[in-house]
Amino acid sequence: MIKLILNKKPLYITGIYRPPSGNLNQALSLISEMLEDTKAENHPILLLGDINVDCLKTDNENKQLSNVLTSHNIYRLNLPPTRITPNTKSSIDCVCTNLPLENVESKVFHSGLSDHTAQLCTTQIKTCQENTHHSEMNRNYCQDNLRTLNILLLQENWDEVHNAYTAEEAYTKFMLIVTMALNHACPLKKVRTKKKVKNKHFVDNQASLLKENFLQKLLSYEKTNNEENKCNLAKAKKEYDMRLRKLRQEASASFINRAENKSKALWKIINDERQTKNVTKQTLKLEIDGQVEDNPYKIANHMNNFFTSIAERTLKNNPKPSVSPHTTLDTGHDLHNFQYTNQIEIQNIIKNLKQKTSAATDNISTKILKYCNGSLTIPLTSIINKSLSQGQFPSALKLAKVYPKHKKGSQTEIGNYRPISILPTFSKILEKVVLRRLLDHCEKFNLLTERQHGFTKGKSTTTALTDFADYIIDNLEEGKHVTSFFLDLSKAFDCLSHDLILYKLDKLGIKSTAITWFKSYLEDRKQIVEIKQSTNGVTAITRSRPLSVNRGVPQGSVLGPVLFILFTNDIPEHLDKFCTVSMYADDTTLLLSGHRDNLDVKSFTALNMAYQYCHSNDLVVNQDKTSQVAFGRRCEEVPSIPDVERNTQATYLGVIVDEGLTWSQHVDNLLSKLNSSLYVIKRTKCISNTSTAKIAYHSLFETHIRYGLMVWGGTSANNLQRVLILQKRAIRTLAELGYRESCREAFKTLKIMPIVNLYIKEVILYAAGQPLTQNRHLHDYNTRHSTRYQLPVHHLSLYEKKPSYMGMKLHNLLPEELRCFSGRRLKTSLTEWLINNPFYTLNEFIERRQ
């Protein structure tokens, strides 16, 4: 390893070699220990050499190497073949780094010294800080200005708003008053900002005194050059450095604790500290009619045309429907008028809004609204009640501001951008009022299908995954063949016809003034595209012409997702005779079971009926991305359907489901995410404190483990062990343990549960919430086993992986005092017990409790 000092900062360059017959696990362990000792996450590093892992293959060795590197935020560059023989090509040499990839170039060439090509790596490292300025027009939303704004609004009597005849007129007058007050209290000003100087705020009086003491000791040592003064200098320097480090850690911890989005705050601190991101906004260029254009106005208008016409372009792929979108669903229970709101409801809605600084074209963010809650509640209540009684949605609330966000690929191709829509904040309040009344109507008369798990009370991705897995396992237990079709719907939220949305709402009982309100809400919507970029230090905002949006539910709205699930509420009614449907918003899966001789006919019929429904309801199925997966040991006997891709696995709601329900591929994918999160924990621990690093653990590491765990946690003991190994590495970082020290006590001290405990908790609480049979339901005797569940008789070992079965089984093994609890008390007591009893395997739990 070579250590270079550039601008007082180290750059580590390491040569590595593993023989072809060398043990990969040992090699990776040595590399990991070296990176741990070097604290590679704190410094730029380059790893170069012959690792004898071919990056041209997608095998397990590549995954292992990638996982180790990712946990230190190091990535392997893709090199062309570095060893070529008459019969083979392989890229077994490597260049790996944690430097920004855009600053690293690599190439290979023949050196004549070996049968391998040589690797040349060139990197750009800044040796001086840029001192750039830029200016832009901004409003200052400091506390003093917001206080002034609130006072101005409190002084208004709002008579013009109250006396307005229509909701449209009332909102226009309301916004005129609010805008005048905003311009007075928080005027637009040209702000000239200087690039931030790193770490300037990490200084206090004690640090200043320590610095002064250090400089005095330095002066004394320079004068005398004796050993005693040298020791005093080293001690003073260490005290000064430790104080600065503590101040930096406290500042980082405070920033993260105050942040609403803690994950975003963590990454901001890490990226600012590493200075990997350039704050200067580059000039946007876009290919228009075969030429690359840099005129922001032309680009904004071209993007707006592209975004507003995407629905019509998508629908061109649909054949002409053979049947009408008629639904037999008719409730017999009507909602003619919305109940009026009051000031308390409006205040609570505003109070519960997430505080954000982003705003639509009216410049009113939720931050402003929450600060001025008391002064705006009365006029807003008046406007909203006019809107509800007249069935009128103010037109000013229908204008969306759209930011183009680059996804991937070339930045000059418009297809590589997706629109991020921002609607007026006041629109969200009105929509939340209507949403509450709409859902009350649907819940009161039980109008929502049980098959829809998205945006529905008591449902989630977890319930969708559980129902999905239960269907497969139950039918395999009955000896049936099981297959599924994962439908890919293109731009589903954007393509819906407004007339069809209103038709479906009418069938759900939304009538009279209520349906008129929804008609007003959907029609005459417009959007603009806004681009912000800097030229010669001046940041300018460019807006496109407004264009009409004639289809779809409004993106970024409160009502949009719910309108979509109500629109597709009749899919099960249409398909129930042919298959079982599982839905989470637009993620739609068809599940079928049966015997081999009739399953192909059932599958073909169900799939075509689903296509027919989509064609008749403005939903476009992307058949190239629609796939079929069969399940069970006899899955090869399940017939394939023509023109549908047959796979051995599919991703459903972020979980990779394989044909044997082994969940191994999902665990592979999970490990990659955990390794990336592990790096963040290490960096956070370095630049902050243990408490903040725990926030990083829970928000970026444990959330990945928890997601879908109740379903995939029934995987093999080996897969759980693979996750536990990474979890232990995270615990060692938090507890500052050595590479081989035990983590069991640290789990308890940090109040963190191992993956096995998390799984035990999930399935037990799930089983406790289901109507399952306990011994006390079978007799009236108060026996010590009365709280134990009756386990169903079964044939397949796979059946024991069902969340309900495993939950009952593990619940039966709990201490008697825990088995007596239910509801919240069970959850609290079980959590406390599992924190104090960390288990590394399920067998350990079972053996200890038997």
What is the helical fraction, as a range of percent?
40-55%
**Mean pLDDT value:** 90
Largest sheet: 5 strands, mixed
Number of strands: 27
Strand content: 15-25%
Q: Globular, elongated, flat, extended or rod-shaped: what is the shape?
A: globular
Number of helices: 31
Query: Could you list the spans in which at least 5 consecutive residues all have pLDDT below 50?
Result: 276-280
State Rg.
Answer: 31 Å
Pairing-aware structural class of the strands and helices? Answer: alpha+beta
Q: CA-to-CA gap between the ends?
A: 53 Å
Spatial ordering of strands, largest sheet? 1-2-3-7-4
Structure description:
Mean pLDDT is 90; it is low at 276-280. Among the domains are: 2-123, Deoxyribonuclease I, Chain A, CATH 3.60.10; 205-274, no CATH class; 445-497 and 551-659, 2-Layer Sandwich (Alpha-Beta Plaits), CATH 3.30.70; 664-849, no CATH class. The chain is globular, with a radius of gyration of 31 Å. It is of the alpha+beta class and 850 residues long. A five-stranded mixed beta sheet has the order 1-2-3-7-4, with helices on one face.
